[in-house]
Amino acid sequence: MSAPRTLYDKIFDDHVVDRQDDGTCLLYIDRHLVHEVTSPQAFEGLRMAGRKVRHPEKTLAVVDHNVPTSPDRVNGIKNEESRIQVEALARNAADFGVEYYSEKDRRQGIVHIIGPEQGFTLPGMTIVCGDSHTSTHGAFGALAHGIGTSEVEHVLATQTLIQKKAKNMLVRVDGQLPEGVTAKDIILAIIGEIGTAGGTGYVIEYAGEAIRSLSMEGRMTVCNMSIEGGARAGLIAPDETTFAYVKDKPRAPTGKAWDMAVEYWKTLKTDEGAHYDKVVVLDAASLPPIVTWGSSPEDVVSVTGTVPDPELIEDENKRNSKKRALEYMGLTAGTKITDIAIDRVFIGSCTNGRIEDLRAVAAVAKGRQVNPRVNAMIVPGSGLVKAQAEAEGLDKIFIEAGFDWREPGCSMCLAMNDDRLKPHERCASTSNRNFEGRQGFKGRTHLVSPAMAAAAAIAGHFVDIRDWQ
Ligand SMILES: CC(C)[C@H](C(=O)O)[C@@H](O)C(=O)O
Ligand code: SF4
């Protein structure tokens, strides 16, 4: 009998085309997602070499990072740099025969949201994209990770990727989440626990009762931020929740092919006794809603807590870096998190821009008003998320409450477009990164869950969402 294997081992093994003695492998890639930021040189490389895209039907291109989120974007993109990137992708997709969703297509959206929506992302697949948050697709039990632009070119040309196997890490979240605590709080707590380098060299498998209980949206939120924990990818074994989500998606298999696929997908779980190189265990019942206070996703604190004191950190380098983070954030140690006033709210991104996130926001916003000092925007992750939200009447709740309801895109997650913080503006954000300048020059980002962001928009400062239920 063969040795017990992890889910990661199985998907990896199933895709090895060639293995060298030093462990370098050539992996077959099932799906390639392409966006406008990391693909121009890759297509240019193909053009110069006179090569074609090996499998256009396994490739899907979309614009997301640079697109404006204002309704007048259909009249053209004013920012020249953005327009050039967007036009380049449109041309490259046409020249190389790759399916492409432009900003005018209702299926357009953030690359990691449209893949699952279209059934382009399926369990057991290898999925790559020139984007670090490709880990999102691991929620389906797919081996999905970001690649660099030269690798994008390699995958376009050959449908394969050179890879060395990573180590296996298990993150088990036992028990049930308390009311008001979400998938976002789980992943922020995990990153707080392992640190931003904790997952370096690993692929993380998330398991345990709390993970099993999550919807696909919640699982995507968790896997999305694997990269913030340093891991190459994050995975969750597919189950009935996964199959129910995938069924009837435009590109999902149908009929007999569906039955065969499900049969295979059911084998995609870690064998009893398989070896993990590292195991981390968390108790969901003890998790609070989390707010980041610094400029790294590991700078987490409970909403009931205070801004920590860097002077208490023994390691000098770490102490200095956290002191600098506090200074950048304009905060003083000891301040209660609920006393921190905010100027802006950003609800969206590939972490929390899906329908369930918007429903959570609507539940908080209904019948309430955004604080007059706060500018709060809601950016659906895709055109389909937007249409669904509008079909449910969520847009009316948002607009009546004073939120700005936008068109889909990456938006203020990274400020590569018109949506950005002004210097020193403080933002409660549902995105995944809080680096210096991430949401705009000198902007200050606090990462939170959608419900926490909505509550902060209304109160004008952070509040414990559990007191609002
Ligand atoms: C622009 C892109 C390369 C980048 C990434 O890889 O993650 C972006 O999506 C981000 O979130 O910072
Ligand atoms: S939403 Fe943010 S994290 Fe996601 S792909 Fe866009 S820029 Fe990157």
Automatic annotation (TrEMBL):
EC number: 4.2.1.33
Swiss-Prot/TrEMBL cofactor(s): [4Fe-4S] cluster
Catalytic activity: (2R,3S)-3-isopropylmalate = (2S)-2-isopropylmalate
Stored PROSITE patterns: ACONITASE_1, ACONITASE_2
Pfam family, one: Aconitase
Entry note: cofactor: Binds 1 [4Fe-4S] cluster per subunit.
Pathway as given in its UniProt record: Amino-acid biosynthesis; L-leucine biosynthesis; L-leucine from 3-methyl-2-oxobutanoate: step 2/4
Protein family membership: Belongs to the aconitase/IPM isomerase family. LeuC type 1 subfamily.
Protein name (record): 3-isopropylmalate dehydratase large subunit
Native species: Aquamicrobium terrae
